[in-house]
Amino acid sequence: MQPQKLSQSTLSALRGIVGQGNVLTSDEHRLCYAYDAQRLECVPDAIVRPADTAQIAAVLRLANENAFPVIPRGAGTGLSGGSVAAAGGVVLDVCRLDRIVQIDETNMLLTAQPGVVTAKLVSAAEKLGLLYPPDPGSINACTIGGNVAENSGGLRAVKYGVTGDYLKALEVVSPLGEVYRTGARTVKSVAGYNVTSLLCGSEGTLGVLTEITVKLIPIPRFRRSLLAVFDTVRGATDAVVAIMTCGVLPATLEMMDGMTIRHVEQANHIGLPVEAEAILLIEVDGYSDAGVAEEAEIVRAALAKSEASEMKTADNPADRERLWEARRSAIPALARARPTTMLEDVTVPVTALSEMTLFIQQMAREHSVSVATFGHAGDGNLHPTFLADDRDEDEIARVKQATAEIFEKAIALGGTVSGEHGIGMTKTRFLPMETGPATIEVMRSIKRAMDPNNILNPGKVFFED
Ligand SMILES: Cc1cc2nc3c(=O)[nH]c(=O)nc-3n(C[C@H](O)[C@H](O)[C@H](O)COP(=O)(O)OP(=O)(O)OC[C@H]3O[C@@H](n4cnc5c(N)ncnc54)[C@H](O)[C@@H]3O)c2cc1C
Predict the structure, then answer these.
(1) Which residue ranges form the domains of the chain, and what is each CATH number?
(2) Phi and psi of 345, rounded to 5°?
(3) Cα 323 off chain centre by
(4) Which of 144, 148, 331, 371 is spaced 20 to 30 A from 166 at the CA atom?
């Protein structure tokens, strides 16, 4: 591990801001913060754990004076290397800011500090009959700050949208250490540039989010879940298009391929059809039992015309929960299979899902690598997950080649290299392929204007030679 590079006077100044016990410099601590949920190792020089906005602002002012990088971090569940120290410096762990500040039941708004775990936010709203819809698979661990910084999606995005669709207002510490507010608590606001949207998905490179206001909706109390089984992946992807055009918008439309099904079943013994080559997990929801029953019937009719070999309805809450637990456990189950899991995040129009999925399988065969694919099929968002061993350099090189070709294909199909996990460190090379140089220059000029000393999360989003 490389030695810690911050000077003693910088470390004492940091201790003066956040207190002795909240500056961590031991090798053990630095190693613990050297990873997110990707496999890159980037060891920070120190970890600083502020208690409030004023301390965060003071850390950033010091960073500008003494020229060290600051990397905001929530729970570290990111999948693109966003919260690790690409160029050394201080990891700013915001998890002590973990308070729900206010729930305004009548205006259906919730204000929280960034370190609030998303599941805790959801359950606080649920107690009042309200729903915060974005539900990333990592909901029990990730933070609302991380969700906003990544503009995270989730299982319900196909009907309810992603984090940014619920974001109303922010308190932010700028890279220079100034505190400011953006957005409004009203249903509508067009007052000036939409800085709130700019910060949403900015991956910790343009500001540290210190307070977040999101809108809530009444809980859709009625739901029906369906499982459809297919002998081919193509049958499943064709059925996705049939469902998306049947006149009903499902709340959730997820797909798992055969390899994913078998790994999930091996890990969790849920009773999934292990002979199948693909399954779709579908849920419809709404505010009236009869309406939801009717919608479920329409989806069933669309599936009946597809190549589904079997359909099951999960009628009771326990069966339903088992189905969704199966989907949520896809990443942990696959991660048990081989020493290294390399999970990707391509998104294409749903009409291109078949071609994209078959191309992923073709790449696996051509490059002799092992890939399991699952994802938010209704969003066209696929997670091809390579199961490899990073002690085998040749295998990793083949995975990287297959991944690059998959990204190229996604772009050619009118898709994107990231539907929800962000660019971070892992996709900087691919972003220009999607956007072109002029768009990258717009992004760079925003970064330069807001962070002239390149303090916040350097080495992310932009490719550096
Ligand atoms: C099992 C599993 C399932 C997942 N499922 C999904 C899914 O369904 N959908 C999805 O979108 N993602 C998913 N993810 C990815 C990840 O959970 C999300 O990106 C999540 O939003 C990250 O939150 P975090 O608190 O862990 O943030 P971190 O990983 O700590 O940070 C992520 C990024 O946000 C920045 N950041 C964090 N907090 C702040 C802040 N307060 N201010 C400014 N910047 C900040 C960091 O610098 C970094 O760039 C999954 C990950 C795992 C491991």
Answers:
(1) 8-93 (3.30.43.10), 100-218 (3.30.465.10), 222-331 (3.30.70.2190), 338-433 (3.30.70.2740)
(2) -150, 45
(3) 21
(4) 331
User: Rounded distance, CA 80 to CA 268, Å?
Assistant: 27
Model pLDDT, residue 1:
67
Q: Residue 33 corresponds to which tokens in the numbers above?
A: 């913060």
Structure token pair of residue 114: 């960034």
- Cα–Cα distance for residue pair 61/12, rounded to 1 Å: 15
**Ligand 1 centre from 147 Cα, in Å?**
5
Q: What is the pLDDT of residues 343-397, one digit of tens each?
A: 999 999 999 999 999 999 999 999 999 999 999 999 999 999 999 999 999 999 9
Flag whether pLDDT at 3 surpasses 70.
Answer: no
Residue 192 exposed, middle or buried by CB count within 10 Å (0-12, 13-18, 19+): exposed
pTM: 0.96
Task: State in Å: Cα 172 to ligand 1 middle.
Answer: 18
Token couple for 58: 């003071």
Give Cβ neighbours of residue 255 (< 8 Å, ≥ 6 apart): 236, 237, 240, 278, 279, 280, 281, 373, 374, 375, 377, 382
Sheet strand arrangement including 70-73: 23-24, 46-48, 90-93, 70-73
3-state SS of 324-383 is HHHHHCHHHHHHCCCCEEEECCEECCHHHHHHHHHHHHHHHHHCCCEEEEEEEHHHCEEE
> CB under 6 Å to ligand 1: residues?
36-37, 71-79, 82-83, 94, 114, 136-138, 142-143, 145-147, 149-150, 152-154, 203-204, 208-209, 331, 420-421, 457
Give per-residue pLDDT as tens, 120-156: 999 999 999 999 999 999 999 999 999 999 999 999 9
Whether residue 24 contacts residue 46, with contact meaning beta carbons closer than 8 Å, is answered with yes
Q: Rounded to an integer, what distance in angstroms lies between the CA atom of residue 174 and that of residue 165?
A: 23
Nearest CA to ligand 1 atom 11: 152
Atom of ligand 1 nearest to the CA of 331: 1
Tell me the two tokens of residue 389. 């061993």
